[in-house]
Amino acid sequence: MEKMNEWDHVFKLDPNKKISDQDLQSVCESGTDAIIVGGTDGVTFENVHDLWERIEPYEVPCLLEISDIEAITPGFDGYLIPIVLNSQHKKWLLDIQHHAVKEYGDIIDWKSMATEGYCVLNPDAKVYQHTNCYLPDDADVLAYARIAEHLFQLPIFYLEYSGTYGDPKLVQRIAEELNQTTLFYGGGIHTPEQAREMSAHADVIVVGNIIYENIQAALATVQAAKST
Ligand code: 1GP
């Protein structure tokens, strides 16, 4: 987990979507820094475990982003714990984490965990609706970034535009602000140009949907991010 601040690029695989063995091999051998297994709907112990078993033979680090306590599967190289900073409900900031720690606190390996402070900026994204977000303006986002770094000292601040391409100027402004906290950007990266543009500001770009739409385009984002 401590190597996360050296990453440039990660692929996010959704356990609720199908991927062929060949495409999975290409993703795992692409030179990406890590694979995150995570999704919003239909995440179950079975589909997470199945995907983990298929990724595990490869050398690429594989992390589980926990979205459902029932789907926690042992064996991953690390676990990402989202908190949704712009949710309007405390449930997504503290209550589900509290419930999980109350249940499993005695056996949790704390060193394998990292908290992600999400700021969700696409109102059409499933995660935005699922976690009852409001749309923050740029000043709000900056304040969340400062909270992430200075008050909560989070390892990750995640600008999440899932499904749509975001605002590079805002990503740049937030990147200028963060020194200790690693900035993840995710959303709508489909081309090497987009990968380069967001990689110029964010520490790590997260590439998801395009894997399932155009595998060659997805693979081309790795080199673009690495060469920026
Ligand atoms: C989703 O941030 C990731 O959680 C990636 O977004 O699926 O739009 O690439 P896309």
From TrEMBL:
Mg(2+) binds at residues 14, 40. Signal peptide: none annotated. Its cofactor is Mg(2+). Transmembrane segments: none annotated. It catalyses: sn-glycerol 1-phosphate + all-trans-heptaprenyl diphosphate = 3-heptaprenyl-sn-glycero-1-phosphate + diphosphate. InterPro entries: GGGP/HepGP_synthase_I, GGGP/HepGP_synthase_sf, GGGP_HepGP_synthase. Pathway: Membrane lipid metabolism; glycerophospholipid metabolism. GO terms for molecular function: heptaprenylglyceryl phosphate synthase activity; magnesium ion binding. Its EC number is 2.5.1.n9. Keywords: Lipid biosynthesis, Lipid metabolism, Magnesium, Metal-binding, Phospholipid biosynthesis, Phospholipid metabolism, Transferase. It comes from the Bacteria. Prenyltransferase that catalyzes in vivo the transfer of the heptaprenyl moiety of heptaprenyl pyrophosphate (HepPP; 35 carbon atoms) to the C3 hydroxyl of sn-glycerol-1-phosphate (G1P), producing heptaprenylglyceryl phosphate (HepGP). This reaction is an ether-bond-formation step in the biosynthesis of archaea-type G1P-based membrane lipids found in Bacillales. PANTHER family: HEPTAPRENYLGLYCERYL PHOSPHATE SYNTHASE, PTHR40029. Homodimer. HAMAP family: GGGP_HepGP_synthase. NCBIfam families: GGGP-family, PRK04169.1-1, PRK04169.1-3. This is Heptaprenylglyceryl phosphate synthase. It comes from Halobacillus mangrovi. The lineage of its organism: Bacteria, Bacillati, Bacillota, Bacilli, Bacillales.
